[in-house]
Amino acid sequence: METTKSASDIRELNEKIEQESAFVDLLLREINKSIIGQKKMLERLLLALLGNGHILLEGVPGLAKTLAINSLAKAIDADFSRIQFTPDLLPSDVVGTQIYNIQKNEFAIKHGPIFANFVLADEINRAPAKVQSALLEAMQERQITIGTETFKLPDPFLVLATQNPVEQEGTYPLAEAQSDRFMLKTVITYPKQEDERMIMRQNLQGGFEPIQPVIRPDTILKARKTIREVYMDEKIEKYILDIIFATRKPEDFRMPSLKPLISFGASPRGSINLAQGAKVYAFLKHRGYVIPEDVRAVAEDVLRHRIGITYEAEAENVSSEDIISQILDHVEVP
Fold this sequence. Notes:
- By secondary structure, this protein is α/β, with parallel strands linked by helices.
- It has 2 domains: about 35-215, Rossmann fold (3-Layer(aba) Sandwich), CATH 3.40.50; about 230-330, Magnesium chelatase subunit I, C-Terminal domain (Helicase, Ruva Protein, domain 3, Orthogonal Bundle), CATH 1.10.8.80.
- Helices cover about 45% and strands about 15% of the residues.
- The chain contains 14 helices and 11 strands.
- A hairpin with a 2-residue loop joins strand 6 (about 145) and strand 7 (about 150).
- Helix 12 (about 290-305) runs antiparallel to helix 14.
- The radius of gyration is 21 Å and the shape is globular.
């Protein structure tokens, strides 16, 4: 339990965080060599990475999702692997399998593409549930079981899963319990016209500058420890819990009109991820303490896949984002 800190403690902590978070600007500067615009996507990738979570990206093809995570892996000097999810994919194609060695007359383990720091699960909703659940053991437990042996996954370990919002034909939507494992669900949109002009020019002129490693994976692990020290006041904790409880019982927060629109609210993972996300957001802004704006900045991405909407909401064309913005407008800010 965090005790109340004095002004001088917070000042000290602020200076420490300012120094420790200096690498963030360096990292973003390097990634921006190959990614133009898409500031929100890059920020959310760092939020998931530093928050020790995973991220689900939804957007039409061609918005540089693969390029973004690949560039991030290169800038951190980490391993990257991409798995294209298809209906005929098997769990062993993701995690690995046992192969019989005739010479030695024994089984050997062949590791799958999941054994990397950054794993891109491309179009996760194209593969059946058994493949999705093989990936989810890795995400939650940070380990893989092949046969009778269990293997630890590398650290840091980040899964970036993508899904195309347009094509729903022949897809296997993620179950609620599975999408809940993702710290964030980010919806990305087309770049602005000026950004797209730059992208078009750069590609026609022969591409972008190569990404150089600017930090090491252990910098990320060290930053995660520092983020735990970011100060969160009890008032902010209460604000986070009020937001989460308002998704479950909106009538208790003077929003009875939302009750028939919500089929289920955010789980306790939602409150953990909202608190963690707010701390990381403060760290990205080089601040040693959390303010209500940090909570509001990450709330939509943390909660949009954790609130179930009813048929009534669908009929009225109300999305989970609309519900979140109503809750943020109503819940008292400390």
